[in-house]
Design goal:
By secondary structure, the chain is α+β, with helices and mostly antiparallel strands. The chain has a single domain (4-329), classed as Replication Fork Single-Stranded DNA Binding Protein. Helices cover 25% and strands 18% of the residues. The chain is built from eight helices and ten strands. The protein has helices spanning 4-20, 94-99, 109-114, 149-159, 204-213, 228-242, 249-252, 315-329, and strands at residues 39-45, 58-67, 79-84, 118-130, 143-147, 177-184, 187-189, 194-195, 256-257, 267-268. Strands 1, 2, 3, 4, 5, 6, 7 and 8 form an eight-stranded antiparallel sheet that branches. Strands 9-10 form a two-stranded parallel sheet. Strand 6 (177-184) and strand 7 form a beta hairpin. It starts with a helix and ends with a helix.
């Protein structure tokens, strides 16, 4: 388990670098986005089982590919497929390579944000207190949490507070975290979420659960890293999505599937509505939560900024032309 000093050092390093420049098929995920407006849920985060992970969370980066529908299906509604961004493994993402230049053209900026990677963060821990009524809870009380940028930034910022003397995941001197859902401008808002002010030792039941079930290795719940074939399929889907085509199940279905289509695709779309969860690539077997208000938090916090302007005409056609011209040149 990393110390608080190690976490602070790594956060500071990441901050300086930024300035310069899967869940499984179980029901372990706690859908905090379903709590009622004006209420909260108290959770206690636990460390990652992976000793090499400095943090007690792991970052996911997914790209959403919207399609007009499913090819061959009458009256098919629009669907979305999520694919993993290769930057999650420290490698160049071919989709972002294509998208990044769009931000140099003001007319293409919205399209660029549409295909930019969406970040979410996977945590684990106990649900200490919650009024949320779940249809079914797992036998193992150690839950996984899919956290969006708004809550994650609150967690991260507090870790740099010198008044916090011990890492919040410590079993004896750790801190609970209260997820609070309010509204702002008609949208769900989590900005008042925060750490508890007093330390709390884990209960006998919580310690027993850790001993019985063990901790999750969070990286086990990242999407499978795409190989050469999957990368080729991702780029085919990307071009088809930009061109406004329908999803071709026969062509791509063995690799990726829209939410609700079932099967063994290595990445799927998400059924959830709340941005605190929708970027996490939940499996299609995960029940869809009730409709909730969207968050006001931007999911494109690291997207490039527009630096120019030009007449783009038909955006999709111009983008596809750029992609195909580059491919011919290669």
């Amino acid at each position: 388990m990393a110390t608080l000093a190690e976490i602070r050092a790594k956060l500071q390093q990441a901050s300086q670098q930024n300035t310069g420049g899967a869940s499984g098929g179980d029901n372990a995920i706690f859908p905090h986005w379903n709590i009622a407006e004006g209420t909260n849920a108290t959770v206690r985060f636990l460390p990652d089982a992976d000793q090499d992970n400095t943090f007690f969370w792991i970052e996911r980066a997914m790209i959403k590919l919207p399609f007009a529908g499913v090819k061959g299906e009458a009256n098919s509604k629009p669907v979305t497929v999520q694919v993993p961004c290769m930057e999650m493994w420290g490698e160049t993402c071919p989709i972002l390579t294509e998208v990044r230049p769009w931000f140099k053209d003001k007319n293409l900026e919205d399209m660029g944000r549409k295909y930019w990677k969406k970040r979410s963060y996977l945590y684990q821990g106990f649900v200490v207190d919650s009024k949320l009524q779940e249809d079914k809870t797992p036998e193992n009380p150690i839950r996984r949490f899919i956290i969006g940028s708004q809550i994650h930034n609150i967690i991260k910022a507090a870790l740099m507070d010198s008044e916090i003397e011990e890492i919040p995941t410590d079993y004896v001197r750790g801190l609970d975290f209260k997820i609070t859902k309010t509204s702002k401008g008609g949208y769900a808002d989590y900005s008042t979420s925060n750490w508890a002010r007093r330390e709390r030792a884990l209960s006998e039941e919580e310690n027993a659960a850790i001993k019985q079930y063990g901790l999750f290795n969070l990286k086990d719940f990242l999407p499978k890293k795409p190989g050469d074939v999957e990368l080729k399929v991702m780029m085919e889907m990307f071009e088809a999505s930009v061109d406004g085509e329908a999803f071709d199940m026969e062509r791509w279905g063995q690799y990726f599937k829209p939410a609700g289509m079932g099967g063994s695709g290595s990445a799927t779309g998400s059924k959830t509505k709340d941005p605190e969860a929708e970027d996490a690539g939940e499996p299609v077997s995960t029940p869809a939560p009730k409709a909730v208000a969207k968050s006001t938090v931007s999911e494109d916090d690291d997207a490039p900024t527009t630096s120019g302007n030009s007449d783009a005409g038909d955006r999709a056609q111009n983008i596809l032309a750029m992609i195909r011209n580059r491919q011919k040149a290669e």
